[in-house]
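Exam revision sheet. Question 4 asks you to relate a sequence to its structure. Input first:
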Amino acid sequence: MLKQFLFIGLYLIAIVLANIFVGIFGTIAVIPVGFCLVGLDITTRDTLHELWKTKRWLKMGLLIAFGSLISWLLNRDVAQIALASFVAFTVSAILDTLVYTKLYKRYYLIKVNGSNLFSSFSDSVLFISIAFGAFMPLLIFEQFMAKFIGGILWSLLLKKTFIEKSKKVTA
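Answer key, C-alpha cells:
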C-alpha cells in the first residue's frame, strides 16, 4: 500500500511540475521537463499498472485528470498546457497499456521501456501540437528523445531502488 502511494505521489508531483514549468517557460522547458519529469511519469505509470492490475484503466484515467486539474488550480495561466497534458497523457496511457500488456511476461526493463517508446512518441506529438497550437517536428522529435531516454534512466533507478528491494523483502 505504501509503495502505491509513493508512486501516485511521484506521478502527481512530476506531472504538475512539468505542466507548470512548461506553462511558465514555454518551449525552452520542453526538453529538460520531458527528460526529468515526464520520463519519470511514463515509468511510474507502468509500475502503477502492475500494482493496480484489473482496475488500472479507471484509476489511471482519474490520476491523469487529477494531475491536470491540480496544475490548472495552482496556476490558471497553464490552462492550455494542462489541457494538452490531459489529452496527450490519456492517449499515450492507452497506447502504453496496450504495448505493456503485450510485453507483460518480459523482463522489467524491456516491458517498461518498450511501452515507453510508443507512449513517449504519441505523447510528444499530441502535447506539442495542442500546447503550442502548431506541429513542430523538430521539437516533437527532441521531446520524444528526451522523454524516452529519461524514461530509460528512471526505469534503471526505480528498478534498482524499488523493484529489486521489494522482491528481496517478499522473497
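Marking note for examiners. The chain is about 85% helix and 0% strand.
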